[in-house]
Amino acid sequence: MKSLLPVLTVVGAILLFWIVSVVPMNMHLTADQAQRQDIAVTPDTPAARQEYSGIGLALRNTHLFGMTYTLERPRLPSPHQVAVEMWDTIALKKITSRRSLVYHGWVTLSATLLGFAIGTGLGILLAVGIVYNRAMDMSVMPWAIASQTIPILALAPMIIVMLGSIGIQGLFPKAVISAYLSFFPVVVGMVKGLRSPDGMQLDLLRTYYASPSQAFWKLRLPASVPYLFASLKIGISASLVGAIVAELPTGARAGFGARMLVGDQYGQPMVTWAALFAAAITAAALVGLFSLIERWTLRRMGMQAA
Amino acid sequence: MTGTALISALAVWGVGWFVNSRLANSVMAKNRLVKLLVPAIFGLTLLIMWELLVRMLEISPVILPPPTMIADRFASELPTLWADFEQTIIKGAMTGYIIGMIAAFAVAILADRSAFLTRGILPVGSFMAALPIVGTAPIFVRWLGSDWQSKAAVVAVMVFFPILVNTVAGLRDTTPMQRDLMRTYGAGYWPTLFKLRLPAAMPFIFNGLKIATTLALIGAIVAEFFGSPTVGMGFRISTSVGQLALDMVWAEIVVAALAGSAFYGLMAWIEGRVTFWHPSQRK
User: Fold this and answer.
1) I want to staple A69 with a disulfide (CB 3.0 to 4.6 A). Which of A56, A78, B2, B267 is the partner?
2) Tens digits of per-residue pLDDT, A43-63?
């Protein structure tokens, strides 16, 4: 709670910077529009205005400040414009409508969650294999680490075309990319977690004459839970990025990525901004949800949340 | 036909796995050469299986080109690949990475001067680091044009938050005892910063810098999906996918993989040089 005020201050500063930036960013557009409405603008020709920077032009036309916040197609929309657009497309549209952000959000979210579930499941299985099999450890682990250095998203368009050409379209190809992105954080985190019990603890179990499977279920798996949650929080936001990027290069019709692309291509900046913020809120909600589950689980297990 | 293909692929897998498990469980497993050899054999096994399955099952190269075809394409398109590499990695990703890094350091040092700001910036920064910031790409492309400047801006924003969060966290990573010692030496803010706190923060800072290497490449490539001149890795990938020239796409992916690994390796090498004193660097 004691960081509430500092956080609000930082958020406030960012908002203030944004609001102030709106004026110079939009000034050239505003000046053009004002001239069409016969409002006096200094300098009065578009060519002469190009000589000035946004800030310089703003200082010469202080009477136009208000107009910069109400442009229909601004270069930088003001926060309230984005908020209004989001309210319109989230709350006021039917969720089945193609213009509803809830609809688009669900398209992206379903791919994210399916991919995340696949990626996490496979990641845990592979991690168990790596911990219990030396050959697997030595051959797979270096590749798992190396794959972290590869911009995996470069694969996205190709996977979608590949799966598309054998007749698989829609949700699944996007989920594959989400799965790919959430896979490796989980592998690396789980391997670390399953190995976190030290020699003394393992020896203790041996003196209890515990079988290897008992050692796994009673010691290694519980010990890996904090590591698993840390990985899950990275993995879910990576999954969402994967699903969004998977929608970009293939001309998907629905989803956050598709909205961003549509907004860009048809010159509707507000659509892009609303999609961007909706994606951010979705990511934040997902990570927040996992933090809650983490806290609850760890408390039930008698552990401290990291 | 399908049967023989599967059987021969499984045979290759079996041989590779047999060699690897013998090597991994032998007394030589601690040997450096063996540590390199095992993953190399694993990678090679996968490549041979890929080649075998694609050739024997006669999978169309439009779906999955065999590795030899990709290697061919790679060799014959070197000038194009080099031009794309220069545009996307050197101009877009590297410029953005350096701008983002400098901005993050500056903000971190400013924020560090007040405990109030540090408490505010850490949560906001880690929140921003988890957001899909690639979404800013269309906005920056619209503002800064389709050339590399807009890609550098996307990359700078993407790498900013992970580096910022890690630097701020690192700057707090000194014990009160160490800071008191500096005070008894009569060291002011700046000497303490440069002689104690920045060096102590280096493991954290490099952690952020290493995470940011991948993000930089992703940002530069994805931003090109939103508009680019007729050169660049993202441009080449999206147009080659459109032409179903998947061998070219794979060649670009090889370039991306090599560049990503080299970039990460470079940061890890510098890290080893700078933080040689840290326990994690002990051999």
Assistant:
1) A78
2) 777 777 777 887 888 777 777
